[in-house]
Design a protein that fits this description.
This protein is α/β, with parallel strands linked by helices. The chain is built from 18 helices and 15 strands. The strands form 3 sheets. Strands 2-1-4-5-6-7 form a 6-stranded antiparallel β-sheet, with helices on one face. Strands 8-12-13-3-14-15 form a 6-stranded mixed β-sheet. Strands 9-10-11 form a 3-stranded antiparallel β-sheet.
Length: 566
């Protein structure tokens, strides 16, 4: 719900802060006092279009802030999470507009765009005014209302078709993967055959290129390797070489090893070294003896590397990716060769699933129609209470169309509906969008919201003088319906009717003052006595009239008694 609204330099408002509460909040005031500015300001902070004419004369910018209390399970929290905006149960909206047309928007301190703001607040507040473009004239919005009224039964029917649609879409992708017509599939099969044979004939294996590259480097450096091996062997084995020197040292130490254990240990270590050097020398000789690299082998390696390089250009960046491509190509080739059998199999499955889907669509439609009958009866009852005794209403359904599997598969069913309305006896039902007048729309909307307020996620309803043109008993009914809705949803209503003001849980007076050749619009919350005086003004009585005062007190008493019984 809306807790706080702060306004600065908007129209005639210099600065205003309004603390709203739960229940029915009613704003009243003299004609021209600026009541509509409050609604315009709320719309502004919710993301409505605005221009610099709303900036107070003589000022360079205006701004509005709104603080909302948010339920932890609401859709708003999910949307905020999607934008990585934190919320601990309090939502703070701030919007500024400067005279040069620049604007800024913040949500909980984070900069957002206007489209993001509208998305976040779309299920936060429902604003209804006399001249707005009514969203409920759209058939999509009407279908959403019927679905919410249908409740859990409809949800289960929708859940039933979800896996069916998922599988049908998978089959469509499988069919698409077969390719186009017969000649296109044959062409594709020829390409796959060539690709698989080229890879298989190459007989490559994972890691082969790395091994061949190492061999090629050895061939390129054959002379350097041979020279190093020969030099090393000579240093160890030629006359007066390392091996001879170590043998001399070993013989000398062996002759004195019996005199001291340390001499013996050194002698043993030299024996190990002597053996190791001898082994290294023999290995070097073997390596140098086998070091003649074959030119034919070098050519074979180069050709093999060229083959791998060519395959990499076509089929992958490594031997592993090439082999993975081969596996996929073989599977696709096999699939194309068995096209007739596979196609018949999956099209039969699709046909069976389409039959189930159409039955699911029919069940969704049946539930909607059943719910719509009950819904229509409740709306007619509400309209009659609003002195539209001859009003009639129904939800019209178009012909149920079966899906043939060539188009889309809507998760929401295939129903096309439209709200049909007749205000007068003897008049045929017609589309709500074509025949309803402003006054009729106000009462219809009130009847509608009285019914849907129980299962809507909206936390605040705002009504901008939808009571215009009504009075007497109808005014009392409107006030009572406001009170019923306000048990579950916060209402902020601008009204000129004493009945609605009497029914308010919180009353606010919007008034103008003039100082130093300037006009200001201000808002103040009314206490009990001020509320009585405002009701006296609304009924046209004099403040010093005892009868008018008693009447106002009696209206409040009646309203309080009515609310206590809801």
């Amino acid at each position: 719900m809306l807790k706080i609204l702060q306004l600065k330099n908007i129209a005639l408002i210099d600065y205003a802060e309004i603390d709203f509460e739960k229940g029915l909040n009613v704003l009243s005031g003299e004609t021209g006092s600026g009541k509509s500015v409050i609604i315009d300001s709320i719309n502004f902070v919710l993301g409505a279009k605005a221009d610099k004419t709303m900036i107070r004369y003589g000022e360079s910018e205006c701004d509005a802030s709104a603080v909302f209390e948010i339920d932890g399970n609401s859709e708003v929290i999910k949307k905020l999470s999607g934008y990585d905006i934190e919320c601990d149960g309090e939502l703070i909206l701030k919007r500024k507009l400067s005279s040069d047309g620049k604007s800024s928007v913040k949500v909980n301190g984070e900069n957002v765009t206007l489209s993001m703001l509208r998305e976040i607040t779309s299920e936060l507040v429902d604003v209804h005014g006399q001249s707005e473009h009514y969203s409920l004239l759209k058939t999509s919005a009407q279908l959403e209302i019927v679905d919410k009224f249908s409740g859990e039964t409809l949800k289960k029917a929708k859940d039933y078709i979800i896996p069916i649609i998922k599988r049908i879409k998978e089959i469509d992708e499988e069919i698409k993967s077969f390719g186009g017509n017969e000649s296109e599939r044959a062409m594709r099969a020829d390409i796959l055959k060539f690709q698989t044979e080229e890879i298989k004939n190459a007989e490559i294996c994972d890691g082969e290129e790395e091994k061949l590259s190492i061999k090629r480097e050895k061939i390129k450096n054959a002379e350097k390797i041979a020279e190093a091996l020969n030099v090393s062997h000579s240093a160890l084995s030629d006359e007066n070489c390392a091996e001879d020197m170590i043998n001399s040292a070993y013989r000398a130490l062996s002759g004195i090893s019996g005199f001291d254990e340390k001499y013996s240990e050194l002698s043993q270590r030299l024996e190990s070294v002597k053996t190791e050097i001898s082994d290294i020398s023999e290995t070097l000789w073997d390596l140098s003896d086998s070091g003649d690299f074959d030119a034919a082998e070098a050519e074979r390696i180069e050709n093999r590397l060229d083959t791998i390089k060519t395959l990499k250009k076509k089929y992958g960046n490594s031997e592993k990716e090439i082999l993975e491509f081969l596996e996929k190509a073989e599977n696709e080739y096999e699939k194309l060769n068995s096209f007739d059998t596979e196609y018949a199999k999956i099209t039969a499955e699709k046909s069976e699933l389409l039959n189930k889907l159409n039955k699911g669509y029919a069940e969704i439609s049946r539930i909607r129609k059943e719910s719509s009958n009950e819904f229509s009866s409740l709306i007619i009852k509400e309209l009659k209470e609003l002195s539209m005794k001859s009003a009639d209403f129904e939800v019209a359904f178009g012909d149920l169309k079966e899906t043939d599997g060539k188009g889309s598969y809507p998760l929401n069913g295939v129903d096309e509906i439209e709200f049909m309305f007749s205000a007068n006896k003897g008049e045929p039902l017609k589309s709500l969008s074509k025949i309803i007048s402003g006054g009729e729309m106000s009462r219809f909307m009130l009847a509608l919201k009285t019914q849907i307020s129980r299962y809507q996620d909206i936390s605040t309803y705002i009504f901008d003088e939808i009571d215009a043109g009504i009075s007497g008993a109808v005014a009392q009914v409107v006030a009572e319906k406001f009170a019923k809705i306000a048990k579950n949803i916060q209402i902020i209503a601008i009204s000129h009717l004493p009945q609605i003001c009497s029914m308010s849980d919180n009353s606010y007076l919007i008034y103008k003052t003039e100082t130093e050749n300037k006009t200001f619009t201000s808002v103040k919350k009314l206490d009990k006595d001020s509320k009585v005086n405002e009701i006296i003004r609304l009924v046209g009585g004099a403040n010093d009239s005892e009868v008018a005062k008693l009447h106002a007190v009696e209206m409040i008493k009646y309203a309080d008694n009515f609310k206590s019984k809801i």
